[in-house]
Amino acid sequence: MAKIRVVTDTVDVFLAGLDGMPENFLICRELQHIWKVTQPFRVVDCLKEIGRYPRGGQLVYAERRLTCSRCTMVRSDAFKISSDRGRTTLRKISANYIQPEGYAIPGTGYGARGLTDYVHGVAFDQAMEAEISDRGDRRSRI
Question: Are residues 45 and 90 in the same domain?
Fold first, then answer.
């Protein structure tokens, strides 16, 4: 019984957080981000770079930074560097995100991933409201 209450509270907090959220944030939450490379692949050596820490247990790894062109979220991917059949291979070991101000909904954390149906619903409601508003505008012009 207690679990249901916690989920309901999280859903209510999440829905309240979606109210008034900028449209570009809602679109990214619904359709995913449009990533663009803002820092191409580079090798990170934690023993040589001050302030760098191992990622995925690797002291040396490849890193690439991406930025969403719609909401400006930044994603930093780390890859284990190895080789197979004479070719370099990269296996993703971690991804870190820097969210723009106002994107996160306090009290929901990453557990909000299961709440995508509500994001679709908010987007649908907004589209329906816009359609009704557009019809009203057209009628008032006639």
Answer: yes
